[in-house]
Amino acid sequence: MAGKRKSKRPTLVDEDVETALEIREKIRKGVWSGKIVPKDALNTLPWYKRIGAKLLTKILGNTLIEKTTPVKPRYIFQTGPQIRKPQYDYVSLFELSRTSWVLRQIFRAIIGEVINPRWTIKPRFYKKCKVCGREYQEPDREVCECGSKELVPPDHEQYLRFVQLLKKPNRDYNMDDFIRSTLWYDLALDDFYWGIVYSYIPQPDGTYKKIPREVYVEDARFIYPVADEYGHLGSYEYFCPICYELEKGDNYVDIRTLPPEERLNPKCPKCGYPLIQTCYVQVINGVITARFGRDEILHGSSSRVLPEFYGNSKLIAVWKLVKTLEAMVEYNWQVYSEGKAGSFIVFPGHEQEELDEMRRAMQNEILSMDRRDIQTGEPTRRLKIHTFFIGAKEPPVRIPIMEDFQKMQSIDFFKLYTEKICAVYGVTPVFVSVVEATRAGVNPRMQIDVQNRTTRRYQADIEDLFNDELLPIFGITDWIFKFGKVESRDVLREAQIEHEKATTVMTLRRAGYDVEIGDDWTLKVSRKPVRDVMRWYPSRLEEGKVPPDQRPPKIEEDEE
User: Fold this and answer.
1) Of 216, 127, 227, 220, whose CA–CA distance to 179 is shortest?
2) Which sign, positive or negative, has the C-alpha torsion 90, 92, 93, 97?
3) In the predicted model, is pLDDT for residue 250 greater than 60?
């Protein structure tokens, strides 16, 4: 019986193991400065070179043999592609934007300033070379830098498609609703999603032609990206865009279950159309109700920080301020509607039992005023006026629970919180004090002044996503979407105009006319005077109206 052939593979002795352990300890302490050679690389060497490397490790101690090949460092929380949800509750943030009066006023002002200039279609270039594709902004350009004279203007067919897209982006609403909804999601959540709807037209060869038809504003509260921790979109789940809506429930294919030769180009087992990788999903109540491919969703944000998946909502920074304003409004509502305990009433010299008996007597007296109608049986109140007589050894003492609004400076804090919220959104609150001619007191009002750079920033967010991402999907590359010019405001001139209008109002009211001021400063004047004419500057010194003892002292000149 022939003996087993001895292996030529080198073996490590105990001394080699001890040397390797010492080197690992040096690496752990951070004092190792030698080379690190992976074991996989050593295995490709001849056996005598491997023995030489081990001897160098043992004798010189300048090489470490690792068991595995070093790989690129990755995060320790690596979990692979999965549904990435925001850190904050988008449903609560969006509901807050719909119920807070200060947020609605800010949103209305910003959206109005963004939409008011309207929008138009402009050419991306004036001339384009058909040979090299170089674009020029000079209308009179005749020769390209490459030497070609084949310069063409923007395509008119693309312009017609662009006009139709702006006129009706989808079958349900127009462009005004599209931009207004986009801005609201951007202001509330700092994230908005545009969904592109495609038509799949069957071809004679059995394939389908994919044509973009419509674009919608998706509900950003329920759209989630599917990606890994590095921000790379995509997952192992693929779906068929043709058969997905025809099936009941969430129907997808995990390509990890397919044979290796089918994973590069997976196709639907029913219709044969290429499957689409899931990059976004719509999740409602924990159930996936829709899937989107990479070119079916456009994600926009004003302040997203990569590689994060979501933007940074401004409502997160002002949440406590908005809730504090709501609490102050709620306190006023309860005080003036239901009533709250504003103070304690202490009766010196009385025991608690006596006060309890007094309270029960008052309650019984109040209940005795109730009666029921004989015919309807509904409770009613007697109209008789009741007088309560309560004896007290000493006068009661009132101890207030809270200070009044003026002492607490509630109005000042109310204005301060409002200013901070407006500052986060880049707008300026303007508090105006209006003094009416026939009334005493000051009536404070607030209006929002949107800065031009804030308006341009929100316009640029929509323009960039529209021109760089959406239009190429619809095959429009020669034209761009552009908002109208934001007129620079002359603050001094506006102040002069408002002053002139206010002076006109005061003049008309003093003349006896009734004047109403609209939101746009339009004046509505009554046809006839409705009150007596007021004197312009009545002097109290006329006709002896000021007593002699209250008149100012007369200044006598020096005799010299």
Assistant:
1) 216
2) positive
3) yes
3-state secondary structure of 56: helix
DSSP characters for 236-282?
A: SEEE-TTTTTTSSS---EEGGGS-GGGSSS-B-TTT-PBPEE--EEE
Residue at token pair 């904050």: 88
Which has the closest alpha carbon to 56: 82, 28, 20, 86? 20
**pLDDT of 548 higher than 80:** no
Q: What are the angstrom distances between the C-alpha of 24 and each of 36, 66, 73, 104, 247?
A: 11, 10, 19, 63, 57
Indicate whether 110 pLDDT > 80: yes
State the sign of the Cα–Cα–Cα–Cα dihedral 66, 69, 70, 75.
Answer: negative
User: Where is pLDDT greater, at 317 or 22?
Assistant: 317
> Peptide bond preceding 307: is omega within 30 degrees of 0, i.e. cis?
yes
More confident residue, 2 or 29: 29
Res 556 pLDDT > 60? no
- 131 vs 154: CA distance, rounded Å: 15
Q: Which helix (H) or strand (E) holds 439?
A: none
pLDDT, tens digit, for every residue of 437-468? Answer: 444 444 445 566 788 888 899 999 999 999 99
- Alpha carbon 186 to chain centroid, angstroms: 4
DSSP state of 6: P
Query: Using CB atoms within 10 A of its CB, is residue 476 exposed (0-12), middle (13-18) or buried (19+)?
Result: buried
Helix-helix angle 101-115:314-337, to 10 degrees: 130
Instruction: Spell out the alpha helix ranges (H) of 4-100.
Output: 14-29, 39-43, 47-59, 90-99
DSSP single-letter state for residue 185: H
Cα–Cα dist 463/186, whole Å: 14
Alpha-carbon gap, residue 445 to 498, rounded angstroms = 15
Predicted confidence (pLDDT) per residue in 320-346, tens digit: 999 988 888 887 777 666 655 556 667
List, for residues 520-545, the tens digit of each pLDDT value: 567 777 777 777 765 544 444 444 55
Whether residue 154 contacts residue 478, with contact meaning beta carbons closer than 8 Å, is answered with yes
- The DSSP element (H or E) to which 9 belongs, if any, is none
Q: Between 412 and 38, where is the model more confident?
A: 412
Give, as one character, the DSSP assignment of residue 544. G
